[in-house]
Amino acid sequence: MSTYAWEKNVRKVTPYTPGEQPKLLSMIKLNTNENPYPPSPKVAKVLREFSADTLRLYPDPSVSDLTQALAGYYGVDSNEVFVGVGSDDVLAMAFLTFFNGKDPILFPDITYSFYDVWADLYGIPYETQALREDFSIRREDYFKKNGGIIFPNPNAPTGVAEDLSLIEEILKKNPESVVIIDEAYVDFGTPSAVSLIPRYDNLLVVQTMSKSRAMAGMRIGYAMGQPALIEALNNVKYAFNSYTMSRTAIAAGVAAVEDASYFEEICHKIVSTREHVKKELSALGFRFPDSRSNFLFVTHPDIAAKDLFAMLRQENIIVRYFDKPRIDDYLRITIGADEEMEALLSFLRKVCMKKEGI
Amino acid sequence: MSTYAWEKNVRKVTPYTPGEQPKLLSMIKLNTNENPYPPSPKVAKVLREFSADTLRLYPDPSVSDLTQALAGYYGVDSNEVFVGVGSDDVLAMAFLTFFNGKDPILFPDITYSFYDVWADLYGIPYETQALREDFSIRREDYFKKNGGIIFPNPNAPTGVAEDLSLIEEILKKNPESVVIIDEAYVDFGTPSAVSLIPRYDNLLVVQTMSKSRAMAGMRIGYAMGQPALIEALNNVKYAFNSYTMSRTAIAAGVAAVEDASYFEEICHKIVSTREHVKKELSALGFRFPDSRSNFLFVTHPDIAAKDLFAMLRQENIIVRYFDKPRIDDYLRITIGADEEMEALLSFLRKVCMKKEGI
């Protein structure tokens, strides 16, 4: 773009590269942590019966139907819930709102790869904190002066979950910082920090309907925290785009939240599959942290991750590989349906047998 | 919020106040420039037949189906189209992307009230330029040093349209600035600046499906410009939220663009109604600039706008009043369906007769 006169006024960014979204339906897609099951049948019903005529009108800017449904499900007040266009939108707004100080914000060196992208986008100073060798967080790293703290729990792409006691201690040591717990994968077996909200005015918990509620395609994320935090977030949202949630997204979101039993059923199925896959992968010599999410972060002593990634791609099985320090010998594998995981395991068995020269 | 320790790191904003969105369906809603007609029947069909199961997967981050449909309709290349969550989202991204210089950006003193909100949100310096008494733009005001230029055409809330020759002269005088023409209301009788795109690498044209395509509730806006501009915008978008457009929004957007004849039909109906309402309002003594949009910006020599606003509210007719310098004696009235405008006119006739003591 260096040939354009207007270039000097343009913001330069290194954009986040989203996981591949192939249009080929024949692929086994285990690369972006989507849910292998469809959303609640109630979502399908609500869309089938949706009155398209109402689309001529703006949606409710306060998204009250959906915030109320979420508040009811999570046992918080509706002024303690903020809704956005996926948790990326919620997190992007939260960075813009809460990380506006001079001190660096803190997050792990191995984590969701959007955090440094947002920090760069807004010019927020940041300092990454090295995880231990087992990918766990050293709580003392977050006791220093900072302009805000964020990490996912369970962490991505490692799947490692931290105890609420660690989160609570970090909250206590940082009354001057907003601490964001990014719970995109919390519904697959990690205790949520939502229970801490009444006691900590500096805690923001962010979740999404993209993973556990099987609605990545509908773009719904949300944050929960005490009313003052939510109000600050809403003020920035209203200064950015008053109407972010479409009428269809609101209707589908409400239906998904209301169908709690279906939600629990599919989470349970994914957790069962994950535990089975863990055993099978262990037997093949793979090593991985004990994931509490809907993915596994695996490495093998005898097969380079990058090579395995390419071999799987040949078989039309897509997983995620991050060419980054400390994790460049790992693959992140989404937990799909049982038959998808069986296809993966069966191929991995062949690869491992060949490696052993059998 | 002054009691919270974390407050010092929080961004302070004066949020934009969106027009009232009453839930009462019995009201005559002429306050947010929505379309009185439903979206294309093809949109209803697409939603009815939408496969909810596909929602488990992320949407296409490049939104290629919709950018291609728009490119086809407007006769540009698909790498010359950017899509976002309503034109507010597109404009918010464009401010963040293109208005990153040190010199103030320029826009009219009377204009869309979100421009100064975005400038404040991102800390962009700006200087408003006074419109003439007849609400037209003085082109020389935009020949000074600046970090970017934006104005709606036709302007809001005045409805005044500028000639493309004025836009072209501003583009020529400002090769170092991105010039954004906000065409939210262009389809109601204003020539579009899209025709200038091949000749000016600094022109970004922003449009929306909220008004002329009757889909305010679906949240779809788009920008058109030369590939380098669109690439810069996409880079910032990918650094903010990779997946902004839901699968339902993409499907509905494609259907709406493809039904060109329905689109033209409803635009034509609204323009006819507007021209009729102009005559009737003139006869009642109202004055207004010659609107080329789907609203009229009216004042009356004998009735204060604020009082009339309150009287209409009593009658369940909602219009928009801006308590701002130079326009605090005007009302912005959306062009609704014929029967809605008849109800409005009939009430205004009564008010005017009473005023004349008849």
Describe the structure.
- Two copies of one chain form a homodimer.
- Chain A is built from ten helices and twelve strands.
- In chain A, helix 3 crosses helix 6.
- In chain A, strand 5 (149-152), helix 5 and strand 6 (179-182) form a beta-alpha-beta unit.
- Chain A is of the alpha/beta class.
- The model of chain A has no long low-confidence stretch (mean pLDDT 95).
- In chain A, the strands form four sheets. Chain A has a five-stranded mixed β-sheet with strand order 2-8-7-6-5, sandwiched between helices. Chain A has a three-stranded antiparallel β-sheet with strand order 9-12-11. A two-stranded parallel ribbon of chain A has the order 1-10.
- At the A-B interface, helix 1, helix 3, helix 4, helix 6 and helix 7 of A face helix 1, helix 3, helix 4, helix 6 and helix 7 of B.
